[in-house]
Amino acid sequence: MSGGQIQVDLREGIATLTVCHPEKRNAMTLAMWQQLAAALRELEGAGVRVLALTGAGTRAFVSGADISEFDQARDGAAAVARYNQAVADAQQLLAEFAAPTVALIQGACMGGGIGLALACDLRYASASARFRMPAARLGLGYSYADMRRLVDVVGAASAFDLFYTARNLDAEQAERRGLVHERYADDDFARQTQARVRGIAANAPLSLRAAKAAILATMNPPAPARLDAIDALVADCFASEDYAEGRRAFAEKREPVFLGR
Q: Is this entry keyworded Isomerase (predicted)?
C-alpha cells in the first residue's frame, strides 16, 4: 500500500476505481495519476456500462495531491511539466470516458479531489462530506481546463468564492451550489449509491453513450466531424437490438434487459 494505488474492479458492466492511499487521506501521488490514466485507457474498450470513482474508507474521497512529494516530483521545469501533464491526462480521460461516470464522495474532497469529481458526470456525497479548494493557501495555480469544469458546474460566482476564500463547504452547501447532485445519510450512503449505479448500468448502454457524447458537445462547440460522430451514435441506437428490446418490454409491461448491441 505504500505510496498509494488505484484499485480496479470490473463486474457485470460496473467498473469501480478506488483511490487507495488511506494514510494520506487518499492524496494522489504522481504514480497514482499515471495509474488512473492507464486504468481508464484499459477500461475504455472493456464493455463498461458505468464507471464509479471512490476513495478507500470513509475519511476521504481524495484530499488532493500528495504535496509531500512535490520537492521531488515537481523539482524543475521539466518535472513540473511532466507532473501537470499526468494530472491533465487522467482528468481528461475521465471527463471523456465514453460510458457514464459517477463520483461517490465520502469525507474530504479537496483540490485535486474536486477536480476528479468534476470530471465525472454525476457526483453523490455522504452527509458528512466536505469540500474545499485550498489552492490560494498553497500558492498553486489551476489550469483553464480545471477552471472550465468548475465554472460549467457551479458557475463563475461560486468558482470565485471557492478559490478566493479557500473555505470549506459541507455536503448541503455543495448540493445547493450544484457541486453534488444528491447527498445521502452516512449510514445509508452505500445502499443508495449502489442502487443508483446499478440503475444506470441497467439502462441501454448505446443510448447512454450517445446522450453523453451529445451533452458534452453542447458544452464545447464541436467540429463538424464530431457532430457526424454523434449522429452516428444516435443512429446506432435506433438500429440496435436494445431499441427493439425496449419497445417489446414497454408493450409487455416488464423491465427491459439490455445487451449493449
A: yes
